[in-house]
Amino acid sequence: MRLTVDLINQSLSYLNPLLERELDLRGNKIPAIENLGGAAEHDAIDLTDNEVSILAGFPLMPRLKTILLARNRLAAISPGLERSVPNVHTLVLEQNRMSELADLDPLMNFRHLEHLVLIGNPVCRKEVRLEISSVVAITNPDGKNYRFWVLWRAPSVRFLDYSKVRDSEREKAAELFGSREEPTPLAHQIANLKSREAEHPDAFTAVNGAPDGIDRTGQTKFTAQQRKQLEEMIRNTKSLTEMTRLEAALKEGRMPSGLISKG
Fold first, then answer.
1. Are 130 and 111 within 8 A, CB to CB?
2. Taking the CA atoms of the chain, what radius of gyration do you get in angstroms?
């Protein structure tokens, strides 16, 4: 089911136990994140139990603090996502398809991320060791290198997989991978081991059935009719604030409220 403006408007919006305004989009078989520019501002969005394959497609949402995406089909995180949701502190990606340590690298730019959940992803069982000519991936039930890599890449994280991060883990991460300015050979080689999905999210989205009109970042592509309608809305607006909002939507490929959604 497409994430249309109508679906967003019909979905439950409520104050959760943390007194956050939360949008409930659970269990709709949504294949891609789109059209959230037509939603009111929220502190949390629940997309649990859908079919989203790439974490992308958010408009600028500075108020958003919590994203719940457990039990989807996520295999990649869009680089630059932090510019759209800069203040996210809780990200739940439990039971998805993230497979390589380097696929988690976009998390390094989320400066406020404190609670991260990745349990149930193949990457949680990954451990690598440096050999003379290559990095060898081996299965590790304890996920030790996985935790060290996440903490090295996303040092703001305080709770990983519902477990509090220990100082000893941060020290071990620095020992294994060095600093951002001077990464170790192991860090360099892990960074080059990305999955096909993370390297080519546009192709991955296509084979996994993302709807027509969604580009590689998950943004909506307007039809000629919609673009004409949006330009007309811009011409007729009498508020500078509203004009700025509509122009930003046109530039970024977001579906503003009041625009008729496709199909």
1. no
2. 20
Number of neighbouring beta carbons within 10 Å of residue 200 = 14
Contact partners, residue 200, CB within 8 Å, separation at least 6: none
Residue type, 74: L
- What is the DSSP code string of 67-135? EE--SS---EE-TTGGGTSTT--EEE--SS----GGGGGGGGG-TT--EEE-TTSGGGGEEEEE-SS-E
Rounded (5°) CA angle 244-259-37 = 55
Dihedral sign for Cα atoms in the order 38, 103, 118, 154:
negative
Structure tokens at 41: 């501002």
Per-residue pLDDT tens for 20-74? Answer: 999 999 999 999 999 998 888 999 999 999 999 999 999 999 999 999 999 999 9
What type of residue is 254? R
